[in-house]
Design goal:
Helix content: 40-55%
Shape: globular
Distance between the termini: 54 Å
Radius of gyration: 28 Å
Number of strands: 18
Low-confidence stretches: 615-629
Strand content: 5-15%
Strand order of the largest sheet: 8-9-3-12
Mean pLDDT: 91
DNA sequence: CTCTTACGCCC
DNA sequence: GTACGGGCGTAAGAGA
């Protein structure tokens, strides 16, 4: 579809690809996509050099997200109906076709059908409706977003190419290691399962059927620690009175649902066992004990303290869950999704994992990551060991230090807090709210102050702060937390002034704007979220800008270094050793901003030489350059 | 097969 | 008197 109203539908052929190439080479053209990243990726797979496009590429998905982050849907269909008053059939013809042909198609071709398998007429009709909508949506969104958030949109637009490049690069994985870890995790998982079966035996399980409760006997061999219902049966059989229920959970739309079932999460389990075992659960989690140590320790405590035979149930269930998760979420996934797999001369099987990064999913402006999610890899347990550094490269982790807390200082403009952020903000706040000199602050006091700092950043109230602390093993009453919060606000009055100011802006305009021009439309009832949106979102936009800067710089000098992943305030770049000396300090400077804000925004640098780890290499000193090459 | 619920990991 | 922010993925269960 063009501005002149011409439209058409093309099949993928060498000729049409050439046509696309010519279009991309024309600096006078503006080419619009809804979710351009997807199309750019497709084109790059077809051999088109998307990083050298002369035309101006726009994305209506990104535009719509910037226009308003709170819309119930960002599908072309919804946006068109809502903003363009376009009409459409109630049903999605292609979706219907896919659904009704799934079985028969899979039987014939051995895979489920996709878009391009649908009848040409259906596909063409839908495609034309889509491109027409996209162009009209562009006419609506572009001027509005350019008025409100011009430079931000330009960053997001450049960022699309960075993301495609990053995803196409992928990360190298050590499949041999993943298989070893999976084997070991399965071994312990099965051993623990056997222990649990022996401990629990046959149980009676309550199931629901059409609103009625039905009792079913479950053979000991069929016991499943992953089932809440089975756990209820097991606890009853072993004579452990059930005490704790799940609480309603907040859903994405802000409403609450769920809750009321018997809870078996870690905190509940800790409260079901005696003190020594609870200690083991906590300590093993904090220090990342190996499974065998945990296992032996549980039984040793049982002996030593002469505890009841049923006591290992909760810790073993926790460990079973953890190991199951490791196997299914991480090891299985890595092993089955690695591509370009080959065996290195040293006998190790390695491959590449191409995960995806979504630059316009999170409301605040942050990236999200999926398939697999690289942003929630456990920090202490096995999975990170599976990610390795490419031969002839080292991975440099550049991370913004305390960046959200720094923007918090920036917005609140509290001089004392700004001074403390570069040292130890939690200790400083502890000293202020406890009225104790900084060198006399205890670990507990600092921990509570830290919880308050983050709690206030996240919009929590005293009760929630008390609850969080208690769950984390530092019992705190509501009154205690309320007192500390009150002292906090008395000592740092600018925080309340700031939130009040945000609330006023919200009432006046319906949104609040961050320093990069990103607007946060927030329901008036949820004003407590704004402070967090501002801190989290400003950090995110700074990172996005940095990624574009870094990527452009690397290209401009023809560097072989590549951006691998981003984890919110951290950027991982793989660099050939010969470039390190000049590049690392340069990237650090590119990312840092020591002047624009109330406090200097600085970047910490760490290097990983073999595996994915933030641990510094003790043989490398950035300042002296010792250890290079 | 799809939805909800519970759980748990990350910043 | 209110109320911790932002994500993703898995398994189990229930209803269709």
């Amino acid at each position: 579809m063009t501005d002149a109203g011409e439209y058409g539908f093309m099949l993928k052929t060498p000729e049409t690809l050439q046509w696309i190439q010519r279009l991309f080479n024309d600096p006078d053209k503006v080419v619009v996509f809804h979710n351009a990243k997807f199309d750019l990726k497709m084109f790059s797979f077809e051999g088109i050099d998307i990083f050298d496009i002369k035309a101006h590429i726009d994305c209506t998905l990104i535009l719509s997200k910037l226009y308003n982050m709170l819309l119930p849907s960002y599908k072309l269909r919804w946006l068109s109906i809502h903003f363009l008053n376009r009409t459409t059939e109630d049903k999605d013809e292609i979706e219907i076709w896919l659904k009704s042909h799934r079985r028969e198609f899979s039987a014939e071709y051995g895979r489920p059908p996709n878009f391009s398998d649908a009848p040409l007429r259906t596909v063409a009709r839908r495609a034309i409706w889509d491109v027409t909508s996209t162009l009209l949506l562009h006419r609506f969104m572009k001027p509005r977003v350019m008025r409100a958030s011009r430079s931000l949109y330009m960053t997001e637009r450049d960022l699309m190419f960075v993301v495609v490049d990053m995803e196409n690069t992928g990360v190298e994985v050590d499949i041999t290691r993943a298989k070893q870890l999976r084997k070991s995790a399965k071994k312990y998982r099965d051993q623990i399962l056997q222990d649990l079966k022996d401990l629990v035996g046959d149980i009676v399980v309550e199931k629901k059927k059409k609103g009625e409760r039905i009792k079913v006997e479950v053979d000991g061999e069929k016991f499943n620690p992953g089932s809440g219902q089975h756990l209820v049966g097991a606890f009853r059989k072993l004579g452990i009175p059930l005490k704790f229920k799940t609480k309603p959970k907040k859903k994405k739309d802000g409403t609450y649902s769920g809750g009321g079932n018997w809870a078996f999460d870690e905190y509940a389990m800790i409260r079901y066992v005696s003190k020594p075992l609870a200690g083991i659960i906590r300590e093993s989690g904090e220090d990342g004990w190996p499974t065998d140590k945990f296992y032996e320790e549980v039984y040793e405590i049982l002996q030593r303290e002469g505890l009841s035979k049923r006591e290992p149930l909760p810790p073993l269930v926790l460990k079973y869950r953890e190991l199951s998760k490791m196997v299914s979420t991480y090891y299985d996934y890595i092993i089955s999704h690695a591509v370009d797999v080959y065996t290195r001369p040293d006998g190790r099987e390695v491959g590449v994992l191409h995960c995806s990064f979504n630059q316009s999913e999170a409301k605040t402006g942050r990236f999200s990551s999926s398939s697999p999610n690289m942003q929630n890899m456990p920090r202490i347990l096995g999975p990170r060991e599976c990610f390795i550094v490419r031969r002839g490269r080292r991975n440099w982790h550049l991370d913004y230090e305390q960046v959200e807390m720094k923007f918090f200082c920036h917005f609140s403009e509290d001089d004392d807090m700004a001074d403390a952020i570069e040292d130890d903000i939690h200790e400083f706040v502890a000293s202020e709210i406890y009225g104790v000199p900084r060198d006399q602050i205890t670990k507990e006091q600092r921990k509570r102050a830290k919880a308050i700092n983050f709690g206030i950043l996240y919009g929590a109230g005293p009760n929630k702060i008390a609850e969080t602390l208690t769950e984390r093993g530092l019992p705190t009453t509501n009154a205690e937390a309320a007192l500390l919060c009150a002292r906090y606000h008395k000592r740092f009055p600018s925080i309340r002034r700031l939130t009040a100011q945000y609330e006023r802006q919200l009432i006046k305009d319906g949104y609040v704007t961050n320093p990069f021009g990103r607007r946060y439309h927030v329901p008036k009832k949820q004003g407590y979220k704004i402070l967090n949106y501002m801190c989290q979102g400003t950090s995110a936009d700074l990172m996005k800008l940095s990624m574009v800067k870094v990527w452009k710089y690397l290209r401009s000098i023809g560097s072989a270094a590549r951006i691998l992943i981003t984890v919110h305030d951290e950027l991982v770049v793989e660099i050939p050793p010969c470039e390190e000396v000049s590049l690392v300090p340069k990237l650090k400077r590119l990312m840092e901003d020591r002047n624009s804000y109330y406090v200097p925004i600085t970047v910490g640098v760490e290097v990983a030489t073999k595996r994915w780890s933030k641990k510094s290499d003790p043989h490398f000193d950035l300042k002296t350059g010792a250890g290079l090459n």
